[in-house]
What we know:
268 residues; alpha/beta; Cytidine Deaminase, domain 2; 29% helix
Amino acid sequence: xxxxxxxxxxxxxxxxxxxxxxxxxxxxxxxxxxxxISHAVMMATSQDLEDFALGFSLAEGILTHKQxxxxxxxxxxxxxxxxxxxxxxxQFVALKEKRRSMTGRTGCGICGVEQLEQVNQSCKFxxxxxxxxxxxxxxxxxxxxxxxxxxxxxQLTGASHAAAFFSPEGKLLAIREDVGRHVAxxxxxxxxxxxxxxxxxxxxxxxxxxxxxxxxxxVGIEMLCAISATTALAVEIAQEHNFTLTAFTRxxxxxxxxxAQRLLFEGR
Length: 268
């Protein structure tokens, strides 16, 4: 399972050309299989796949707790990778019922949803108690420095997204990278569940879509900071669920769309 691969290319720069070896990120089809039944196939980078499987399962509501995952095997096939999971019978029955009502696969957030009311239904059911308080937004600059320095795959290829988890004081606790922004967040959620659901917040190197807000809400994460923009639906869901959402979170600035009560707007 390769994460990167070298390819020959011709680089054009001003009036000159040169042959170079470039590191390219590898993306592979990853099949998520529950109790012998394939549920979804995602294009992803083949690192931290156990975290991905657990995080995806929790974020999509297939599992409600990590203990409902009894076993997991990552199996390399000739045309991709299978993650074979054994889950609790009750959760598997619920998954089969959900599949019967779906017209497509899960994972993109809205594919396969029959009614618009179902789009944010899981958030209302799974949102947890308020634990995160009093975050000083002036720590965001240091968080961005830590985030940039920790993105090894992005430094090598320039083609990956990252999701990182910080303590309330701004210490980087974990980072996960992937060619897909949702998958990077799923991988981080898997780490978060394994780590015992620590208190803190998430930074992502992408825009904040409504699916990303939902994924955080589904596991009890209360704050998401995006380097890029957000969407109207993401803001509406965040406001409805008392979730802290910032976008354009870059050096010396951020736009707070929801949950400003968790931020202490004080000087250094």
